[in-house]
Give the backbone structure.
Amino acid sequence: MINRLLSFLDASPVNFLAVKNIADMLEAGGFRRLDPCQPLGAVKAGDRFFVTKNDSSIYAFRIGSQPLAEAGFHMICAHSDSPTFRIKPNAEMLCEGGLVKLNTEVYGGPIMSTWFDRPLTLAGRVIVRSQDVMRPDTMLLHIKRPLLQISNLAIHFNRQVNDGVKLSRQKDVLPLLGQITSQLEAGNLLLNVILEELGKQRPVSREDILDFDLYLADTASACTFGVHNEFISSGRLDDLSMCFAGLEAILAAADSDTTQVLGIFDNEETGSQTKQGAGSPFLSYMLRRIALAQSGTEEAYYQAVERAFMISADNAHAWHPNYPEKYDPTNHPMLGGGPVIKFNAAQKYASDAASAAVFAGICAKAGVPCQRFVNHSDVAGGSTLGNILASSIPLRGVDMGNAILAMHSCRETGSVRDHEYCVKVFTEFYNM
Ligand code: CO
């Protein structure tokens, strides 16, 4: 089971690739891709389908034997994006000696120092000319070789480096792309690499490339480590590990009375307020369309929302043996201790006593332990998509996630056992 997660992480360096891989696995599992431009048509019990938005968010549905209005729906949500660096337009910066570095912009909140001195590559999507100006083509790009590196300053130029460094997002984190060998290459280095890579999919000319959304990605593979191979080392565990657990669960689940929904949103790391983020009404439109197709009234949708339950799955902080003072004295989840329910008095998390009791009940039914997280009261902590979604679809639900170390590092640490637990609990939830 863990090898499937590791392969998914390696094949999904950024949101666009993650969504493509999820779509491929859904199709292989009998889910039909629907075009949201077309009428939904009749919706029957047992129907399985999915839609995507912006190529970076994806929503899958397995229709229950009872209509939404009568049985509600069981929804698992997670996010496809992770902190990284976006390549800016006109990115090439020619420096002395023909060295070319790339101008980038920080995406989300990475621990920037963890991106230094490791082979990096590019991944994302390239927009390519088609016959229709309003509908250009999209080609996905994942260069599978070391292409770039953000190099540190030698310690001899900064003797205080181990006492902590302040990093500029504009100066310190620009990666080296290459060294030009002729003036013809100047300004074309990045485009040449993109053209060569896209050419492996189909012939594309220079003039056809209109724009791109490209990001830096680690080239090292995800792996397990530890004496018993009990830990996972990978980038993007936040939140692709939760996306994948949800995917495994909806593929493994059986048809049931209740409709099963998997919602993978983009842009959680930048606040979710985009058409493909959890702040978008897109998912509520889809649910409304399904309810209308089943029952012919808008009323059915409102009933469905009242009967539904949401699990917002985003990773939690595991107790770190080097920094015990950062954690709440009585609620600090352990790696391998099972899924974590997250609470926050200021309501940054959707969980409350009622929804937590439901989730703990599902864990008990699945034979899986569960843990609870709250912040140390002097530490601000984070937030996630659960309550952003709940503010447009007022769902009863819980914020949870598997505990990891080094959240937002280029390589985070998770637990193999927790992944297995999580798939079990999610499958149980869908089957209820
Ligand atoms: Co997250």
Observations:
- The longest helix spans residues 237-252.
